[in-house]
Design goal:
Distance between the termini: 38 Å
Number of strands: 8
Shape: globular
Radius of gyration: 15 Å
């Protein structure tokens, strides 16, 4: 059978995350890119008051994911900030392309821009 172009990490792989200080209820979105197409499913954390006067955007690098900010999110939300921590496509709880050439700087900047517009 053909190899899928996008794969999803099973949710049970993250079962111990809460024990490691990552208790957040993540959200998922498939962002539209036109022509009826969407990007692979993207995971993000959105914690704190939606009407907070300021929002902090926590962006991970490679090879990390929003788990990196698990302690920072607690401190910032306790201080009254809204905190957005996405998992870029290919990382953490977001879907992953099976072909490395699918990952580009443009993909990550587009997905971030579309996520922020969505929020």
């Amino acid at each position: 059978s053909p190899v899928p172009t996008v794969v999803r990490t099973p949710e049970e792989r993250f079962d111990n995350a809460a024990k490691l200080g990552y208790p957040y209820q993540g959200k998922y979105v498939e962002l539209p890119i036109g022509g009826g197409k969407t990007l692979p499913r993207m995971h993000y954390i959105d914690e704190g008051p939606r009407d907070a006067p300021e929002t902090v955007l926590c962006l991970h690098g490679e090879p990390s994911w929003s788990f990196l900010y698990r302690h920072v999110i607690k401190v910032l939300t306790k201080a009254g900030f809204r905190v957005i921590a996405p998992d870029f496509i290919g990382f953490g709880k977001s879907d992953k392309f099976t072909h490395p050439e699918a990952y580009t700087h443009d993909l990550h900047t587009m997905s971030l821009r579309l996520l922020l517009d969505h929020l």
